[in-house]
Amino acid sequence: MNILEYLLGLLQTGTGNLAAYLAAHVLLCLLPAFFIAGALAALVPQEAITRYLGRRASRWVSYPAALLAGSVLAVCSCTILPLFAGIRKKGAGLGPALTFMFFAPASNILAIMLTGVQIGMDIALARILLCMVFGVAIGLIMSWLFRKDEDAEEEAQKANSGQAFAQRAGVPRRIWVFFALLVAVLIAGTLQVGPLKNSYATFTLPAAWPGAFQAWLDGVVPPNPALGIEGVSVHGVFLIGLLALIGVTAWRGLNKVDEDVNGWTYAALGIITLTLVVAAFKVTAGPQGFAVGITGKLVAEIVLLGALWVLAVKVMERDELQEWLWEMWRFVKQIMPLLVTGVFFAGIGRALLPAAWVQAISGRNTLLGNLAPVIFAIFIYFPTLVEVPVAQTFLSLGMHRGPLLAYLLADPELSLQSILVTSKIIGKKKTAVYVILVGIFSTVAGLIFGQFAG
Amino acid sequence: MEIKILGMGCPKCQRLEELAREAATEAGVTATFTKVKDVGAIMAYDVMSTPALVIDEQVKSSGRIPHKGEIVEWIRAAQGT
């Protein structure tokens, strides 16, 4: 095989990975998840949670509040680090503050959904539960190790008397309902259960071209179950087209939606709704034409999306909606380009990286097997969410599920940049201990999970 | 007039700067804009989270992006008009 064929082959793998990704995962799990992340950023007042983080609060209150803050208040590291600095400044205990900082990247709704849909719900759940436990453990350990420093700081802070932690802020009921509907849309679209997946009625759209088109697609982007490469369906191509349309309308309609709503805004929202509905059909291309199934998922999505529109138009405040859409779109702009690039290169990496290497180091659930990916994760930076396609590549190359979890736990937590910033906030010594604790816990978590996951 | 945007370079901070510049133009005021990115310098101000808007060393908002209209008001008030 000459070099050109080889390169083309790589390009094919990368593109195939990307196309399958966009059609399947992005739509049904990431699209609703971005809306949830946007709603969290726009509609939850920080004070509602941060007021429980003060040093005066009992541990039984401040640590759960720190966990809640981590899961609800921060999606990207650009929010996590400043908020960590802020609550420290305002007098939060070292323990709860670190629990917040540790749990926030782990409980990122986008990452959880992507992990669950692409790698497996078992890993996604393990990721979140273990991070909860270890987050609190790390907070408590750090708080105990540095208790003398903390006592000194509390004395100095007496004057501040926790003003920041005495504020009151509630969450109006319509916002709870709004969240519930958004989450329901997400679950209805991604939960793999019979009643949702099964078709209750089928009809055929007769046409000659679908069969041929699907065959052509399978030729260009061959499915390769051994490497974990799903093919692209005609349905998928149509959905990718809709995604592109969303990109164009959203760019014009959502870039400045916080200040100004225009025709493009409504167009974008309409197409997004349409896309979610179209994605819920079960469509297979065959020689006869399209076999279209009306699934339980479809019915659920139509009802839920309808309810969302009604709530938005009649009950939600305009300001809230505009801010929600702005936050949602800015997450998309921040994360998607890097994710797309990451998926493409992860696809190529799968073809390039020798499986033998991966298996030799992390093929079994050993101490070294778990430690190696953790060290890799600490020093190599991947943007938010990209750790998931990278993990998928490792998995398909033969990494054991234990080390896989260790990698997924460690990667979002630390990067050289976040370590630098953290050391500016709490000092080099505390940061060093924190990094070591994160490394140990990720490795141990991987080892434990690996024992059960086998 | 000195307008400072406190933040570590995330999209929200960029949007705040954009709106602040538009607001200053609308209010007909020339101001110097500074972006404070260093976390130590940010902590020196009394803010819980970023992005934060500081006009003539007074913190006007933090943890959110205010409406352009609000920013125009603050700029006018700081100008004394």
Describe the secondary structure blueprint for this structure.
The complex is a heterodimer of chains A (454) and B (81).
Chain A: H1 3-43, H2 47-50, H3 59-73, H4 77-89, H5 94-106, H6 109-118, H7 121-145, H8 147-157, H9 173-190, H10 194-197, E1 199-206, H11 209-220, H12 234-254, H13 263-280, E2 282-286, E3 289-295, H14 296-314, H15 318-352, H16 355-362, H17 367-379, H18 387-397, H19 401-413, H20 416-426, H21 428-453
Antiparallel strand pairs in A: 1-3, 2-3
Helix pairs in contact in A: 1-6, 1-9, 1-12, 1-15, 3-5, 4-5, 4-20, 5-7, 6-7, 7-19, 7-21, 9-14, 12-13, 13-14, 15-18, 17-19, 17-21, 18-19, 19-21, 20-21
Chain B: E1 2-6, H1 11-27, E2 32-36, H2 39-44, E3 52-55, E4 58-62, H3 68-79
Parallel strand pairs in B: 1-2
Antiparallel strand pairs in B: 1-3, 3-4
Helix pairs in contact in B: 1-3
Annotation, overall tally of beta strands of chain B: 4
Overall tally of domains of chain A:
3
Low-pLDDT sequence parts of chain A: none
Strand pairing plus helix content of chain B: what structural class? alpha+beta
What composes the largest sheet of chain A?
3 strands, antiparallel
Give the end-to-end Cα distance of chain B, rounded to a whole number of Å.
13 Å
Q: End-to-end distance of chain A, in Å?
A: 38 Å
Q: Number of helical segments of chain A? A: 21
The percent of residues in helical segments of chain B reads 40-55%
* Largest interface by Cβ-Cβ < 8 Å: A-B, 24 and 21 residues
Widest sheet, order of strands of chain A? 1-3-2
Instruction: Give the spatial strand order of the biggest sheet of chain B.
Output: 2-1-3-4
Question: Whole-number average pLDDT of chain A?
Answer: 86
